[in-house]
Specification:
The protein is built from eleven helices and no strands. It is mainly α and 222 residues long.
């Protein structure tokens, strides 16, 4: 079943907005304009406009995001946003390494008995994408079940293959993402990433409720 246009638009906006925040270094990545815009938000106004999520949870998440970015803003000579070291260090601790990540951003780490990347759930997602002729969003070195890539793919599907959105959510993203996002919220030491985890989890829960999706939770090994 294809979701309504309103729901598709909401998922497209949420996926496209949230995905770069998981994928891009706040200082050296390509999402500088997004970090800039978020640092200037009025959290109350943004909460009123944010789709799908419970408003109380959205408010909490956006408050943390905006507060965290404002506290981490180092203004360059041209006035552009430049992230301070604490925000950059936290991004690299959570998503890059080299130390062991407290909350790895790949689904198979949680659903595979061996807790590895490129596990069974990754391969199942790749197979599903090939079956439906969906182009990969990263090269072979990046597992497709990275939370940022999967949110980006969600946004792409709403535009190009809306009939697949519900299947993608219920079989590939929702079974593990809330578990991971809950762990990320606990492990994050910077308010920005706590807020990002909370807002993303609330948005996905809202999408599940809006679409009345039945999601079978797998066994988690982490």
């Amino acid at each position: 079943m294809t979701p309504s246009v309103d729901v598709l638009n909401s998922l497209s906006f949420a996926g496209a907005t949230l995905s770069p925040l998981f994928l891009q270094d706040p200082r050296t990545g390509s999402a500088g304009a997004l970090f800039e815009a978020l640092s200037l938000l009025n959290a109350d106004e943004a909460t009123a406009e944010w789709p799908l999520a419970d408003k109380t949870e959205a408010q909490e998440g956006l408050d943390l995001i905006v507060t965290g970015l404002k506290a981490s803003r180092a203004t360059e000579a041209d006035g552009a946003f430049c992230a301070e070291d604490k925000l950059v260090d936290e991004y690299r601790r959570l998503f890059i390494g080299p130390a062991q990540k407290p909350a790895p951003p790949w689904g198979s780490v949680y659903t595979d008995r061996e807790q590895v990347i490129f596990g069974e759930s990754t391969l199942r997602l790749r197979s599903w994408m090939r079956q439906h002729g969906i182009a990969r969003l990263a090269d072979d070195r990046m597992p497709d079940d990275h939370i940022g890539l999967m949110l980006s793919l969600l946004a792409t599907l709403t535009e190009e293959r809306p009939e697949l959105v519900e299947e993608y959510l219920s079989e590939h993203l929702l079974p593990w993402a809330p578990h991971y996002l809950g762990l990320l919220e606990v492990c994050a030491e910077h308010p920005f990433y706590k807020g990002l985890a909370l807002l993303t989890k609330a948005t996905l829960k809202g999408a599940q409720d809006e679409l009345s999706l039945v999601v079978i939770e797998p066994r988690f090994y982490r």
